[in-house]
Design brief:
39% helix, 16% strand, two-stranded parallel sheet, globular, Rossmann fold, 13 strands, homodimer, alpha/beta
């Protein structure tokens, strides 16, 4: 990739799971990076190594508040705005649905206006959730999805759909140069152990020798993309002149049942895993798989990290993470299991 | 219906087509009425007769701004909040898509918070547009729709879907007592002659002896509900204890092609009509028909006004309206036609 020495990228939500990897990769590409994050569902610890870097600045702030002065002062240098600001896992985004919706709509609007003001290119990280519980497989970008706008996931799903609508509207009348990524399930180091996502849930349970919780019958499918691949795709999309404003799916097209995921984790762990089954949450999609033909054609991108390799890195990271900071009740449960 | 003497109803968007009829009907039901409207796409002339009434107050304001002091002063008396605030016809809501989206999301949030603060019941007027270009007919409330979230109609369609999501979220945690109406095509006096809706377009063209513009082949269907029926339904829904927060379709299930609508107009007019065909706009739904089983069961409501009767009243109103204020260029064209 081309070097971007002297240019500044703003990463809203840069302390989150994908955001923190993106900040690092942007620094490696020569960008100065300003990370704006409210630390509500992200973690400053994800930025520990980055904060030592001269070209990295962390600004604590919520995209719903007026943009911090520190950011406005650097408006003239900013050429890229990545909007990753929003809680992304169901228990976290459902904890305050009003804030989730407003973050997606008002936050996106505010950053689009900042892009209009600065002339920076804007990238919205949208989501496979815009397809809801899809009735077509795999999902192509022009499939309009099957989303409940009244259910408990709607604050996120509809918030992202609304954010896409606004982003495309800014592009349609030339107010901003935009890109829209629809991110499918992604996993890797820096995931929040508490955010209830399937990979982090299962890996943590496995490491803590707890029974693994499976929702439904385990036959629902997902596609899991390793975070390094995803970050590469986001940057390729941002820098692509050819991509244009229309949404582009980013994810791993390799479809996997949750049961197969458990088997892949079991293959890494030194001990056998126990499984307990729970009912599927409301509106939980039963199948989700990206068609990435557009990403292949326009960006020349496809995920390269094998699941076994990505999972091994993820398990190793969670092992260190849990070792440093095992939640008290889990420690007790592990102790109990260990005592048996 | 029960009388509500002494209670106050807030009607946001009360100077619009449906809003103005609603204000009148609420006054007749004994409510004091405060109409909040920014007059962007609505018309103060719709309120001419109402402004003489003691129990009616007009407050000019945009739901995106802080609620006017005059409104906050009456917070203690307000028991009903109707949210009709949003441009509703494609050329008008597409003129400023950012404002349309924010009106639906931020405006609804603000009025929901006002409902939370006052304890007033809140009714969102949503729309059949949440079904997009539906793949099932007729549409029942639990059909999730087929909506493009990136097209030029998305600012409205997705804005309303997001507004529904927020409204249901307020209900789910007991922050507000809410009702959601999905309004299908409605027509009648007080429609804006310039808003590009099919009934007003065709009636005005017919009255001005201009060729009638048909988009597509005229075989796309709509269902047209007379405004008096719609207003009755909105009030029944608001006052219903049984209805609950889930959306409820309001409209006329009688499906009609646009060509049949033209024939119905022609039957009223004293002169034959000429038709010109134009291509269908992007994302224009080809078919839309409400299933109103829920409204029948829960509210005991169905539309009662025959199309011929409603159209006759509408034509008579537009005749007076255009007589008062014929646009200059149309006058010239009419004069030219008359001279031939």
């Amino acid at each position: 990739m081309k070097k971007h020495n002297g240019e500044t990228a703003l990463v809203a939500g840069g302390a989150g799971f994908i955001g923190s990897h993106l900040c690092r990769a942007l620094l490696q590409q020569g960008y100065r990076v300003v990370c704006l994050d409210n630390l509500l569902t992200s973690r400053r610890s994800n930025l520990l190594a980055l904060e030592a870097e001269r070209d990295f600045t962390f600004v604590e702030g919520d995209v719903l508040d007026p943009l911090p002065q520190e950011l406005c002062d650097r408006a003239g240098d900013i050429t890229r705005i990545y909007n990753l600001a929003c809680a992304a896992s169901p228990p976290l985004y459902q904890a305050d649905p009003e804030h989730t919706m407003l973050t997606n709509v008002v936050g996106t609007d505010k950053l689009l206006r900042f892009a209009e003001q600065t002339g920076a290119r804007f990238l919205l990280t949208s989501t496979s959730e815009v397809y809801g519980d899809p009735e077509r497989h795999p999902q192509v970008e022009d499939y309009r999805g099957y989303v409940s706008c009244t259910g408990p996931r709607a604050c996120y799903d509809e918030g992202k759909r609304a954010a896409e609508a606004m982003t495309l509207d800014f592009a349609r009348v030339g107010r901003a140069d935009v890109r829209v990524a629809r991110i499918f399930n992604t996993y890797g180091p820096n995931m929040n152990p508490d955010d209830g996502r399937v990979v982090s849930n299962l890996v943590c349970q496995a490491l803590l020798r707890l029974p693994l919780t499976l929702y439904g019958d385990g036959r629902q499918t997902r596609s899991f993309c390793y975070v390094a691949d995803m970050v590469q795709a986001l940057m390729l999309l941002m820098e692509s002149e050819a991509a244009g404003p229309d949404p582009i799916n980013l994810g791993n097209p390799e479809e996997l049942t949750i049961t197969e995921l458990v088997a892949a984790i079991e293959a890494i762990m030194p001990h056998p895993l126990e499984i307990i089954y729970k009912p599927l949450p409301v509106d939980d999609p039963t199948r989700r798989q990206p068609d990435i033909s557009r990403a292949r054609a326009v960006l020349g991108w496809h995920p390269e990290t094998a699941l076994s390799e990505g999972l091994a890195k993820t398990v190793a990271w969670f092992q260190r993470e849990l070792g440093r900071n095992v939640p008290a009740k889990e420690t007790r449960r592990v102790a109990r299991v260990a005592a048996v």
